[in-house]
Amino acid sequence: MKNVGNIIEHVTHTLSARQREIVEERFGLRDNQEKTLQELGERNGITRERVRQIEAEGLRLAREHFKDSDGDQLVAIAKAHLTSLGGIRKENDFVKDMQTILKDDSVNQCQLRFLFKIAGEPMHYNEDDSFYSFWCLDKAIIKKAETFIEKAVKFFGGKKEELVFKGQFDPHFKQLATASNVDLVAGMDYLSISKKFATNPYSDFGLSHWEEITPKTARAKAYLILRKHGKPMHFRDIAGTINTTGFDKKPVYAQTIHNELIKDNRFVLVGRGMYGLTEHGFFPGTAKDVIRQVLIDNGPLAQQNVVQMVSSQRFLKENTILLNLQNKKHFKRLEDGTYHVA
């Protein structure tokens, strides 16, 4: 089979210079930027309708040479791949798949849109408010996907706290797919085309409005990073991680992170610029407050045990902890040498 570039050259070689220019510009075959009828009309000094007519005639002529260009083989390969995935695939993923199958990294979405437009199949769906661009076999598949997406939104809507959604192998997803009589691979492709679902930089998958999936504020991003890191981080490191993780292109500044975290009770300042999460067992307060809480929770403790437990909560020098522990107003040394709340 000819490669995609050669197929395009074969089906367009009989077009007039103007037809070829219009077709190539309309489908972005020259620079991967699709042009509108209005843009091409203004550039060529003709009406939008005239551009549409030239495009239609160019596509008709290209269609006459499609089968003898190996185009039908390309369509068969694309349809077979879509069938193996349940009939639908997000456009970005589909293009990557075709590059792999055809062993040609130069294949792009503009080329595929053009050739499959001529062939009339598979079916392309343009991005809108609800869906990303995708390719599918027919409208029946779209309806099936929409039904599954609606079920998934309801199913996962109340499971945010218990859900650690890692894709098709997550038990919750398996439960939903089995109940809906949908293949696991197909089910993931159905959800991937919907803007109601998204994946964060850590590959967690869930409803796109969940803060853990699509964190929009610096504070939300910091929370996700600390939650994944599992231990305290300096606010400068948190800012740097936000800027390199790939949330978005908007940079955040270290001082902004410090200002945001200091006023949110989910975060605890555990040392000089170091923040931890309350859900990881850290609690707010001064060194004295932490010592007091440790003794209340654990009862009388030997001096070294107090140092050890407080050090797990705060980045403090041992002398600082011992100095606070000697404050007789707040703590007392028992006869057996242990310490407790005064």
From TrEMBL:
One of its GO terms (molecular function) is DNA-binding transcription factor activity. Residues 216-280 form the HTH HARE-type domain. GO terms for biological process: DNA-templated transcription initiation. InterPro entries: Asxl_HARE-HTH (IPR007759), RNA_pol_sigma70 (IPR000943), RNA_pol_sigma70_r4 (IPR007630), RNA_pol_sigma_r3/r4-like (IPR013324), RNAP_delta_N_dom_sf (IPR038087), Sigma-70_RNA_pol_init_factors (IPR050239), WH-like_DNA-bd_sf (IPR036388). It comes from Candidatus Wolfebacteria bacterium GW2011_GWC2_39_22. Keywords: Transcription. This is RNA polymerase sigma factor. It holds the Pfam family HARE-HTH. PROSITE patterns: HTH_HARE.
